[in-house]
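Q: My labmate handed me this sequence with no annotations at all. I'd like to see what the chain might look like in three dimensions before we decide whether it's worth expressing. Could you predict it?
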Amino acid sequence: MTDHHVLTAENHRDLRVRTDRDAALGDAVMSCVTTPDEFRRVQSHYPILFRRNVERDEFVALALFGFEDGENLFLEDGRWDADYVPLAIDIQPFLIGAPAAGGTAKQVHVDMASPRIAAPDGEGVRVFDDHGRPTPYLETIAEQLGALDAGWQGSADFFAALRRHELLEPLTLEITLDDGSTNRLVGFHVIDEERLRGLDGDALGELHRDGHLMPLFMAMASLGNLSALIARRNRRMAHG
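A: Here is what I predict for the chain of 240 residues:
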């Protein structure tokens, strides 16, 4: 259940948000959405995979945290064990909404049903100060929301280019863990490196001109993080 409201100083003067990391706060997720604008930062820690929405016949990019639903191998003892937390995770419980009637600027919304909402006098970071002004925390959130929204809006051209040049191929990954058990990662796509290498100069020039070539390379480089993710799973299993 969600309970979305437009964020205002009038209605949310005393709002506090939990910024620590825990499964109980909604961090126990296998993946989150990311965009090409974010690939450079994401690829430092996480595999970037692509998943097709069959109903809408479109692709989204995902930062991978685990190998099954509800598994986040970066959650350790109340902290996120990586230097960078993807925007789609870091902005919670906020989201960006449509402009007000007659306006053009998009509005910040908050999910009041989120477990990150703290008691007014409890733990958590304040969103507005005593004078109703945005705190530095909220200013950072607004910047992150803007970046994520811009990345999302701009990703349509990226995915159109991937389709035009047939640069996505299905991934089926079979993982054998230290205890002998086997996991299969299915339903995802990755960049088809052989197809990319086979593109002619005109096609590569087009991808570079439109700003798509660097995100492609970042997505391919990110797959090197799969072995580190498997190692995290093995360590977690070894420690129970």
